């Protein structure tokens, strides 16, 4: 852009020889204004590409050591002040549907022709006037799992599976309207997952909101709110998989969310997930979550969260039977089971989250409880689960924590392998417990997991988990105490 301005100046000089000697102040001022405008547009484009337009000004780089001043003018160095950050620079830039209103406004107000923004696997397209934004989306998660050591051969299985195989799109119109849709093909069937439209705006400086309507992903628990392509382990914790509404992770409804500098809160009201059943009324689920970062600096964050839900079940969905993953998703015989449980009328669940990170080390603890209401005056069925997880990036990268949403996202790898670097390498560990023994037929179990994640770049990673599991089921094909090991691996691409 600066070269174009210089070319314009040379053309003006060539066209007007007298100007080469004595340009007028008005002509010089016009050239300066044009150059300043192009520089501003260039900066805006770079900000959008790097996702840094919302960052506070970084400290100036250190200059060469200055000479020691004379004793009579020497002054004490000012105390160092930690700079707080409004969002995590270690995350990839958000797509059109996940941007806040400031980021969306910047993209709209700085048009520079039709542009293509590359940042996380696939491009973001911007119209010439900056009004329309569009991005294709996709997710490929391929797993292999092998279980051994069980006393029952029915559990000693080696299997493969697609954890996710998604295609979708997202976009926006102006600074306020946005949309997103994805379909999953992982079970060789088309399954609509995320599908919504929304509106975002600013209430006051530092306070934003958005409202989404459509087929919505739950905002519930730390890992329950983290996408399957961003979880630090191959499977979410037992809190996320067991303390959950009967309809699962999705439902059709509305979700207003409020964001401030140190946290967010959401309220979701939905019916059932996408289905073809309209002969009876849907169930109803009301779900709320809030998180707060009481400590938030460049390299340290503390996370506190709370959530809860209440659901009234449809007359067509009164079965509360659960068979919950404990040693890997792709072994259908390895589950903690409630046994057959019919006649449910509703459930209420709640949980807490506490954790954070300091430099490359992160820790997160979660606990939850779910009460299932039964008809005929029977006692409620109670599910309990808790987990403690942690990780450490030996390459020095910061954990991909998203303080806007209180969940994990995709990391912005400092030294990608495709640029000759090592990528980001993370060591992880987790202990989790699940208890269904409030039922006569209910089981219990626990698992300890060690893992390693290798992020080749911001959208490609390899994961390996080694799990020792222990179950004690009172019903099903394998009853009584049993234990063993599962080794699982995943290759994942998200774009």
UniProtKB/TrEMBL annotation:
Leader peptide range in chain numbering: 1-20
Region entry Disordered, spans: 57-118
Family matches, as InterPro entries: Porin_dom_sf (IPR023614), Porin_O/P (IPR010870)
Natural source organism: Sphingomonas taxi
Biased composition (Low complexity): 57-66
Keywords of this entry: Signal
Protein name: Porin
